[in-house]
Structure formats: structure tokens, C-alpha cells
Amino acid sequence: MSQKVVDIVKEKFGSVVLETKSEHKDETVVVEASAWFDVAQFLRDDARCDMQMMVDLCGVDFLDREPRFEVVMHLHSIRLKHRLRLKARVGDRDGDEARIKSVVPLWSGANWFERETYDLMGIDFEGHPDLRRILLYPEFEGHPLRKDYPADKTQPLVPFREGYEKLPPFDDFEGMSFGRQVFRSGKVD
Amino acid sequence: MGEITKPPTTTAVLSGSEQGFATTRLDALLGWARKYSLFMYPFVTACCGMEFFSMTSPRYDVSRFGAEAPRFSPRQADLLWVVGTISQRQAPVLKRIYEQMLDPKWVLAFGTCASCGGFYDNYTTLAGIDKIIPCDIYIPGCPPRPEAVFDGLMLLQDKIARGDRTPGIVKPRQDPAAGLVELRTKAKVLA
Amino acid sequence: MEPIDQELEEGELELPSQPMTLNMGPSHPAMHGTIRIVMELSGETIIKTDVQIGYLHRGFEKMCERGSYSQVFPYVDRCNYASPMLNNVGYALAVEKLLDVTVPERCQYYRVILGELSRIADHLTCTGAMAMELGAFTPLLWFMKGREMIYDIMEEETGARLTHSFGRVGGMAQPPTDNFKAMVSAVIPRIRSIIGEAEALLLQNRIFMDRLQGVGKISQADAIALGWTGPCLRSTGVAYDVRKAHPYLVYDRFDFDVPVGQEGDNWDRFMVRLEELRQSARIIEQAVEQMPDKGAINIDDPRIVLPPKNDVYTTIEGTIQHFKIVMEGIKVPAGEAYGYTEGGNGELGFYIVSDGSGTPYRVRIRPPCFAITQGLGGLITNLMIPDVVPTFGSLNMIGGECDH
User: Fold this and answer.
1) Among A37, A122, C90, C133, which has the highest number of CB atoms less than 10 A from its own CB?
2) C-alpha angle C287/C395/C24, rounded to 5°?
3) Helix C266-290 vs helix C385-395: crossing angle, to nearest 10
């Protein structure tokens, strides 16, 4: 549906476009990380594309690939009703060197999206006015949405209480002094 | 486990029941006054907040328990309603608010996320508020129905009247298997 | 202290004044989301803000990578917990986009009706809470009454009042009950009358109007650049509604309007939501009329949909189908898709990356109120502290969605 946008981009930026895809009614263009800002600016300013709204910016972690991360940006034109997914690949296997230029000068709405991608994925956005953690607290170490961060590894801010009485297991006749039922679970006469 | 003993009744306020300490008339009076005039501090974070609104709405009316008045300053409140998931980032805030409240104070964990972390077993969720503050009543449910919340509130009022500080948990009133028995017997009749 | 008989110049009488930093903390009386606004004040005027979210970050995206596609539904429900059915439907549509399947027509109508009922619940909560924060308690109680009626229908249909987890990839968990249409048709006129009553109370009230009109203005260009969508964007004059611009399910068969504001202030956001309530009611009435009474709800694809329980216990194919779908998850072919629908706050998008197995590789939720809350700092600069409350309320920041 936005195939012509893909064609326009390929025509103008042929050398930096790594691949294009059109599947499941979505069009995707993968560009080199160095051309990220220029392609985005072109998409916003060119009258045939007119991508006035940056819908989403996120990162995807492919642990077994080099470059490891994919920065994915979804763009949308309200007037022309077409969309595009712009991607770039950054980062080495350890997750360092994941750097890309920030698009905040183009769409002010990219501010929090890039902060969130930095927070959860660890991708650095050069030129971002205020790159700090947004969803997690500043004392948190690591980037949890990466595949090598274990999901249940907590970093508590408040030390847990020690030696308190754990809730005792309740028998049928304890706990509530009213409305009590005795359960015969599993028994069917 | 053996036989089921007769449950202690709640009217024995003065007679010094095994679980309570309200043995004087003054304690009984204080317990009665406190339990029907709980000023709540609604520490509302998440989806349970929607059921919290419903609870304060005309249909399920919390003011009939005397527990409606919200006080948004912890200094003026005595019941801390922890409604919704508490994340690790929110934990110091919750602890601070609990510490700012004046005695006597009670804490009510509204919902599974506040009681035990819910199904958010991850890097960012506090697995239950009793890890950082003592909790008096646990109301399971995701979110709990307002009726379950009132069971919890009545249980808390019961405990306040008796001067009981052991934690309590709300259990379902209706046997979940009861409906199943009915269905199966109906199926047998039809077959 | 200077002696009294000394004459002091006018300039020497200046008191030192620096901006004061005030923290509207994560636990605050406003009835929307848990947020921390650190404000620098000069008197009562706000000169700088730092809006801090993340106090309800529950790791939605990481949780999705640990289960199967169907196990995401409970998590997704709790994102925008004011309108859970819209989240369910949005996510199901995104996965179905990746699978390249379409659900049967009856299911599409069912999803539309339940989704619009959820949207009504969301807008009732938002507008009611806004009114309450300005001191008008009664409209909130009336709107809660209306919301309870919707919850009754949802409880009858899905089993739960709030977090239904009713959507499934390829259909819904259960077909509609027998008196679904009758219940919905009975509730809609009552909700209309409740909206009318509350409007009669609020819209002529001088205080209400003065506190909302002209406060928290944003221009169209700013709103689009920030990524705003939904009622907040429509209040600035941009008629962008995903249901009209990129129709999905059966929305193109209904005749409804998209209310649009002019100024982009709190009043317009409030009025747009109030008007959208009526439009949702219109959609529901038409959908109830057009919905077929018979027909399948789930698509007829054994790789996606669980078989009926009878088949599971009596046939070997049913057992295998059930086993494979539950234990291994729905095998979605490798690829990626961005499925977007109109959520309660705007364009709710799900960007799903699949690696061919039954577990999603990456589920990214594009929360509409994340982009909207971004603008909060700019909106409340140069306003006074009491203006923060209706402005924040009009944005309808749902914590579960914003912090996902």
C-alpha cells in the first residue's frame, strides 16, 4: 500500500538502502545506521511522503546476529494515509557500540520513545537532549529487555523486611469468622 | 487434620477470646470507634483502581462501612489501601508513606499484585508489599470483586474490634466447585 | 534589623526569591495514573517541569517473551485497564495480521460491540474523574452507575468485570450468550440518558467552563509532532481516527461521526470524549442490528484455535490439536507486523516480531498515552498549580498503558 514510498526512498538513497520488504501489508526499508537521520528527514520533508507523525520507535534484540540490535521506527502520514517501517542495525555482540543519531530534532515526540529504547535496550541516541532512564529508576543497572538479561533478576531499592511472620497456612475454619464455607473440592456425588 | 472445630464467634469481645486482646470495656469502645471510622489513604496505582472506584460508587457503597473518607495526607489517615501493583521504583515511596502514618494504622493489600506480586514475576515488580511493610489484610483477586473487598474490610473491622494484629486473608464465600456439581448432575439427567 | 529611623530605598526592600521546586509525587490525589511531576514554581506559576513516569512499569514486553501468544492476553488486558477489550482486540488483530487470517463476520461484530462498550467505559471513567477532580462529585457517581451497567454485560459475556482476557487469536474465548443483544439494547438508552443528565449539570457551569476553557492549549502541529493520536489529537482539529482512516473489522459498515475540537484545550478534550460516547453508542446500536445471530465465532483453522472440549476428550485429532496449541503455542510464521487499532486514547499499536515458534520473539506495544503524556510538560508550563489537575485529567494517562 505504501510501495511508492519505498520506491521513492530507494530512488533517492539507493546506496544506503540495505533491503526492502513488503509483507503482511506493511512496507519495511532497512537503511545503514549512518544514513538514519537523513532518510528520516527526507521522509518527513518530501511532499510525496509527508510523514508528519512518528508513530513508534523501538529496538529489537537479535542475540545471535551482528549487528545485534535493530532500531525500528514506524512513520505515518495523516494526509496521504501511508505508513512505513524504517529500520537500522547497530551494536556488536556484547551490546556495546549501539549508537545511532537521534531524530528528536525532526519529531519532538521521539524524545520519550528514544529514552525508553535506551532504558530497556541500551541503544545510545546521539544528540538526544536528555537521554536518561524513563521507565526504570536511575539506580538500575543493565538493560532488561535485552535477551541476556534474566527476566526475574530484581534490583530492589528498599531492603526487604527480615524475620517477619509469614502468613500462616489457613485451614478451612481459620481466617474469616463469617461466611465460612467448608470445601469438598473434587468430590462429586 | 481431623475434625472441624467450632469457629470462634465475633461477639465475644469482652470475654477475652484466644485470639483477641480486647479485654476491657475501654478497649472494646476504642475498637468499635476505630473500626467504623477508618480514614483511608488510597495508594492507587493500577487496574485494581478501577474496582476501587466501583467500590466507592453508589452500587457497592463503601460509606456504609464508615470507611469512605479519603485523606490524601498520610498523617491524617489510618488505613493504607495499597491498590494495584507496586513496582520496585514505587517501593521506597510506599515505605515512606507507611512510615509517615501515625499509629494505630492498618494496611490492606488490595489485589493479588499488592499481596504477592501477581503474575508479574519479573525484574520490576515487588513481590508483595509485605516484603517492605507489615500488612494486615490480603484481598486476592485480579481485580477482586467489590464484594470480596468488603469481605476484607469487614474482616479488618472484626480484627480491629478484637485488637487482633495477625494478618488475615479473604477467602471466597462460594464453593467454586458447587456450580460444577450442579452442571454434572444436570448432564447426567439429560444423557 | 535596621533601626526604624533609617530611611530605606525601595530597591533594598526586595525579599530574596528563588524558584521553588515542588513534587507532585507518585502518590497523588488525582485519579489518573501514578506519575511524578517535579515542578519549578515561581509563586504559583510553573516555569519548568520534569514529568517522570515508570512507577507502574510491569515489564509487559519482557513477560510476553516468556509464554505463548495466547498467554499474552491477560498481560495486554492490564495495559489499558479502563478499556480492556480494546487491548484484547488490538493484540488479536495484530497476531492475525501476522498470520494473514481474518475472523468470521459474526466475531467481527462481536469484537466491535465489546470493544465499543469498553470504550464507553473508558470515556465515562475519564470524564467522570475529570469532573470529580474539579469538585463535581455527582457526575462521577452517575457515570460510575453507567459503567456498572457495562460491567454487568461484560461479566455476563466474559466472566470478569474488568480484566476479561476474552480475546483469542482467531476469535473469542466463548460465543455470545443468548440474551447478549437484548442486554446491550437495554443498556444503551440508559447510558445516553446518563450522559444527558451529566451534561445538563456540567456544561453550563461557570466554574467548570472557566477552569477548562483556554487551559492546556496545544497547537495542531505540536500535537502531530509529539505523536498524539486519539481524542487528544482530535481536540486540536485533526480528524484522524483509525476506525475511519484505516478501517478494520467491520467499522466501514457503520455510519458514525468523528468529533473534532478546535482549540486543543482541556474543554475540547473533555467535549470530544463526551461526544465520542454518543458515537460509540451509535456504533453499538448499528452493530447490534447488523450482527448475525448464527455463525461461527472462531475461524476454522486447527493450527490456531482450540477445538471444542468434547472433541478433545473423544477424538485423537482433537487431543493432538489441543496439546500442540497449548504446550507449544500457536506457530506463527517468522516475520513481523505492526497491527494498529483505535484504543481508548488513540492509536494502539502492536509491533510483533515472530521467529516461527510458539513464543513471540518481541511484542512491542505502542501505547497512545505514552506519546500524549510526553506533551504534559509543555502543556502545564506557564500554568498555575490548580490547572495541572484538569490538564492531567484530560490527557487520560492510564498508568498501565503508559508504563507498560
Assistant:
1) C90
2) 145
3) 20
DSSP structure class, residue B167 = -
Bridge partners of A17, per DSSP, are: A31
pTM as predicted: 0.90
How far is C59 from C69, CA to CA, in rounded Å?
16
* Count of CB atoms situated within 10 Å of the CB of C386: 12
- DSSP E strand boundaries for C166-323: 167-168, 171-172
Dump the DSSP string for B114-160.
HHH-TT--STTB-S-GGGTS--SEEE--SSPPHHHHHHHHHHHHHHH
Contacting C residues, span 225-264, partner chain B, CB-CB under 8 Å: none
Pairwise CA distance, residues B179 & C399, whole Å? 36
DSSP conformational letter for C26: S
Q: Do C364 and A61 touch (CB under 8 A)?
A: no
The Cβ of residue B54 has, within 10 Å, a number of other Cβ atoms equal to: 22
d(CA C166, CA A65): 37
For chain C, the chains sharing at least 3 beta-carbon pairs closer than 8 angstroms are A, B
Q: Which residues contact C157 (CB under 8 A, 6 or more apart)?
A: C114, C166, C174, C176, C177, C180
Contact in structure between A106 and A44 (CB atoms under 8 Å): yes
What's the gap in Å between the CA of B37 and the closest CA on chain A?
21
* Structural contact between residues A32 and A16, judged by C-beta atoms closer than 8 angstroms: yes
Q: What does each of the 404 residues of chain C score in pLDDT, given as a tens digit?
A: 556 666 666 666 677 778 899 999 898 887 788 999 999 999 889 999 999 999 999 999 999 998 899 999 999 999 999 999 999 999 999 999 999 999 999 999 999 999 999 999 999 999 999 999 999 999 999 999 999 999 999 999 999 999 999 999 999 999 999 999 999 999 999 999 999 999 999 999 999 999 999 999 999 999 999 999 999 999 999 999 999 999 999 999 999 999 999 999 999 999 999 999 999 999 999 999 999 999 999 999 999 999 988 999 999 999 999 999 999 899 999 999 999 999 999 999 999 999 999 999 999 999 999 999 999 999 999 999 999 999 999 999 999 999 98
- CA-based nearest residue to C277, from C261, C257, C301, C297: C257
Tell me C325's DSSP state: I
Q: Which residues of A touch C (CB under 8 A)?
A: 23-26, 28, 52-56, 58, 60-61, 72, 74, 78, 81, 83, 85, 107-113, 116, 120, 133-137, 144-145, 151
Cβ partners under 8 Å of residue B186, min gap 6: none
Its sign, for the CA torsion A4, A5, A7, A8, is: positive
ipTM confidence score: 0.91
The answer to whether the CB of A145 falls within 8 A of the CB of A163 is no
